[in-house]
Structure prediction request, 124 residues.
Amino acid sequence: MTEEHRVVAALAEQADDLCHIHDHATRVIKHLDIPTDTFSDYEQSGDADFPIKGIVKLFLYKELNAFSQAETARRLRGVASVYTRFNLPRPITQASISHNWRNRLVASENRSEPSGQSLKRSRS
Prediction:
């Protein structure tokens, strides 16, 4: 598992714990301190349409809820508070989610999602 996947797994675990206290995952994810130096991002970060912290929060939201990329995009289009909580300038499309997964991390980091880790939020 790469360092980036370890960071995401640790953030997801923290968020999952806090989601049992708060009523919505986005309120928890919004306040997470994302260590952006852990993620490689684009060489020219000014070329990015979406900030790296927002993208990491988006993937945490996706994984905590076990959503597909299409379902994540649909939910962001449907409720403005979701993408604004992650400081994204607008709803992100499924194609952009896929592009960010493939291109915002270096090749060795983006081949697969964290293996052996269940980031799905428990529904108790």
User: Anything to note?
Assistant: Residues 30 and 85 are 5 Å apart (CA to CA). The two ends are 28 Å apart (CA to CA). The mean pLDDT is 76.
